[in-house]
Write a structure and sequence with these properties.
- The chain has 343 residues and is of the alpha/beta class.
- It is built from ten helices and 15 strands.
- The strands form five sheets. A four-stranded parallel sheet has the order 4-5-9-13, sandwiched between helices. It has a three-stranded mixed sheet with strand order 1-3-2. A three-stranded antiparallel sheet has the order 7-6-8, with no helix packed on it.
- Helix 1 packs across helix 7, helix 3 packs parallel to helix 5 and helix 8 packs across helix 10.
- The chain is globular and about 55 Å long.
- The chain starts with 6 loop residues before the first helix and ends in a 7-residue tail after the last helix.
């Protein structure tokens, strides 16, 4: 298990050990995710500190392994393009080294933590042109408060809809580009070795143990940190951006399902709740769950690399992996509003 000491990884390790799997964790302790030393173990699984770009410790860890669960990655939009080499090194070069060593060791099963960011924008339809793919949003439009992407053919308003696993990949940030590369590298490894890879495209994951407000945090952690500090969550654009917020324990269950399924199963699978909500919905739910917390403040503005709407159906994961989400949005947000965060 790579990245097993991180936010999502630690929940996945706990789910795997509880199910009776023997797990070994490799984690680099990257400062973007860890502000303190790594623990000696996670849920009884030993933790070894190692950089995946170093073949030696990776090869040693693969001895006797049946399945690799690859969670390690540098996540989020980051600070600026100075982060670009870090993203490519931690996400793509590290994945390439891991896959090469898996081929040498004869390990034939990979569960990859991918992301909904590989889609760029989600699904859209135009009244006149049917399903369309909008282009990147224009800075001048965003600055003027025109946040919805228009039809690329006629400029008409679009209706957002579910994005399926068969949608074209259209990364619109550095992080997104590295996740697409991870999927392509893993697919090439599977073709050349006869192995199988399940790429789990996580949507907006939240839950206990999220890192506090950092440039690499997801929006849920940023809003949760604001509520804890007594500040109103600051919501960009008009708050109408639609996402699917999925609880980390459901994500851990999806990983367990991907391991327990027929070992020849390959493909990409959306891991989501099936309950699309707006970003303002999420901020409002967090504030409302804490007595005396200030209401969110819609501040306009935008972040380059953000997309307007992206949400999906969990149906394929249910059909193939047997995974169905269990934690509803309102229940999850109430619990998350007071959950411990990672310092």
């Amino acid at each position: 298990m790579t990245g097993g000491a991180g936010f999502i990884g630690s929940h996945v390790v706990a789910a795997l050990t509880a199910a009776g799997h023997a797990v070994t964790v490799l984690d680099s302790g990257h400062p973007a995710a860890h502000r303190g030393p790594l623990p000696a173990e996670i849920a009884g699984a030993p933790v070894a500190r190692a950089d995946l770009r170093d073949p030696g410790p990776v090869a040693a860890a693969l001895s006797g392994v049946d399945v690799v669960v690859h969670q390690a990655a540098m996540v989020g939009l980051g600070v600026d393009l100075d982060d670009l080499p870090g993203y490519v090194g931690c996400n793509d070069l590290a994945t390439a080294v891991l896959l090469a060593q898996m081929a040498r060791a004869g390990v034939g099963r990979l569960v990859l933590a991918s992301s909904m960011v590989v889609y760029g924008e989600g699904g859209y339809s135009c009244p006149a042109h049917g399903r369309v793919r909008p282009g990147p949003r224009v800075v001048a439009d965003l600055a003027a408060g025109r946040f919805e992407p228009p039809c690329p053919d006629c400029g008409a308003p679009l209706a957002p809809e579910l994005v399926g696993e068969d949608a074209p990949l259209d990364p619109r940030s550095v992080y997104a580009a590295t996740k697409v590369a991870q999927e392509h590298l893993s697919a090439a490894w599977a073709r050349q070795t006869g192995g199988a890879v399940a790429a789990l495209r996580y949507h907006n994951v939240y839950g206990p143990g999220m890192p506090r407000d950092t440039p690499y945090s997801g929006v849920a952690a940023i809003f949760r940190s604001a509520v804890e500090a007594g500040r109103p969550p600051r919501v960009f654009e008009d708050g109408g951006q639609r996402r699917d917020f999925v609880h980390v324990r459901d994500v851990a269950r999806a990983n367990l399902a991907a391991i327990d399924v027929d070992p020849d199963v390959s493909g990409a699978f959306n891991v989501c709740s099936g309950e699309p909500r707006t970003v303002l919905d999420m901020a409002t739910a967090l504030s409302a769950a804490v007595h005396g917390a200030p209401a969110p403040r819609v501040v306009g503005g935008h972040r380059l690399g953000d997309v307007r709407h992206v949400f999906a159906s969990p149906d394929l994961a249910a059909k193939v992996l047997g995974f169905e989400p269990e934690i509803a949005f309102d229940e999850g947000m109430r619990a998350f509003s007071t959950a411990a965060l990672r310092d």
